[in-house]
Write a structure and sequence with these properties.
about 35% helix; Jelly Rolls; DNA-binding; about 240 residues; alpha+beta; homodimer
Chain lengths: ~240, ~240
DNA sequence: CGAGGCGTTGAATGGCCTCAACGATGGTGG
DNA sequence: CCACCATCGTTGAGGCCATTCAACGCCTCG
């Protein structure tokens, strides 16, 4: 069903953290020049296509990732084989925090859209955070952010009617964005996020289009009628 | 609907951490005698009745809690006022980690059953964890555990039919327990945990009783037919 | 050109929700 | 002590919404 593409073919060179455009927002934002000198391991940048898995559940957590662009889904499986997407991770977010605890990864991490990520050895973070309070605090903050996301995913996206859930998902996609334009996910992924079937996701999205709550601006890019979607989301 | 009882009347004395029966499993398990000497603030123990709130969403996080016995629910609210229970916290678990980051609490924390908790100032943990790698690692581990719980709550308890969800909840209640005996929650709470109505929760539990998957051993204490519940949970 | 993936739509079923009623229980006050 | 009330679990009836199973058009790609 989901094609699994190797990361190998996605390598896009070594990253230049010091001059990273996202640096202020990234995990390494608080590092000094001296800190960077301590990083002897290469930090690689990858260009991943939709469907590519960065890692799988249970894999040894030698690496952590920062997302530069695009979206990555975190997927868990039920005993019966059905999948549930428990979170999506986007620009400036960190993937694989659990690796710091020497646990295997807790999810499959799979690209939803074309995405750029930076990969760095877990060991680097572990070493740096020992002596760097700011990085260390940054890690705690991100752990908490993941937890808040997980809770919101439950209260907002797994509660209420299908219409409400889809509306909340759409609104979530454009939060903290300058425009109300966004790319949609496949109906199958939407279903796995919202705990509904792909058919219901499809019907609901199609309905929103007919009601002009959703207007296609470019190929698979939609403008949202935020006020009306918000009305649907809340009652 | 839910009575809110003040913590004040629940005070049960100062805790004696050094001789705590739960110490090896508790947050402070790795502390030395010297560490304890640094704690100048009192650590209080409370005996809370069902319905009592330890804290509410947005409250200033001056304190953290360890649960000694019983269960505490973490509750979030939707804009329309309906509530969703996003996690339950039980013996040896820590409540209020988010307080370490100077955020307000992210949930209402309310006792489900009669419970005993220890309360300690967030400041104490913040100070001790600065110089104590073991405590510090313990904190990270607990953060990750909360995250795993949150994810499991979504995949196991918010996915599938009502029958499956209730079965999974019951099994979860006796996991890592010596016996298969457990107390049930009110049908309203079950509904809020599983994203179903109280009536559906009631009907499902009543059905389980009729099928002898659930046998009352004492007043509101039930023995589970684990193999058959597991069968229901998985298909 | 055929195959396969994806989004869409239809029809029918069924599971859950809604609204309502009722019994049991436990606490309160006369 | 007992009538009274509130709460909680249970059950019924009816309706709606999501699922299920199926078919079809469109697109990409081999």
């Amino acid at each position: 069903m989901v094609k699994s593409v190797s990361l190998r073919e996605a390598w896009a060179g070594e990253a230049d953290c010091r001059n990273c455009a996202l640096r202020t927002a990234a995990l390494f934002g608080g590092l000094t020049e001296a800190d960077f000198d301590q990083i002897h391991d290469p930090i690689d940048q990858y260009d991943v296509k939709p469907g590519t898995a960065l890692y799988k559940t249970g894999d040894v957590g030698d690496y952590m990732y920062t997302v530069r662009s695009g979206s990555i889904k975190l997927v868990q499986y039920l005993p019966d084989g059905s999948q549930r997407i428990v979170r999506i991770v986007r620009s400036t977010d960190v993937l694989g925090l659990e690796a710091l605890l020497d646990e295997g990864y807790q999810h499959d991490a799979v690209a939803l859209q074309r995405a750029e990520v930076c990969r760095f050895p877990t060991r680097v973070v572990r070493n740096l955070s020992r002596d760097n309070p700011r990085l260390h605090h940054e890690l705690l903050t991100r752990w908490q952010r993941a937890l808040n996301e997980a809770d919101a995913w439950l209260t907002e996206l797994s509660t209420g009617s299908a219409r409400q859930r889809v509306a909340r998902l759409l609104l979530r996609l454009v939060r903290d964005r300058e425009t109300s334009e966004c790319e949609l996910f496949s109906r199958e992924d939407m279903g796995a996020m919202l705990g509904i079937t792909t058919e219901t996701a499809s019907r609901t999205i199609a309905g929103f289009k007919r009601e002009s709550l959703l207007v296609e601006s470019r190929q698979n890019s939609f403008l949202l009628d935020i006020p009306n979607l918000r009305r649907i989301a809340e009652d």
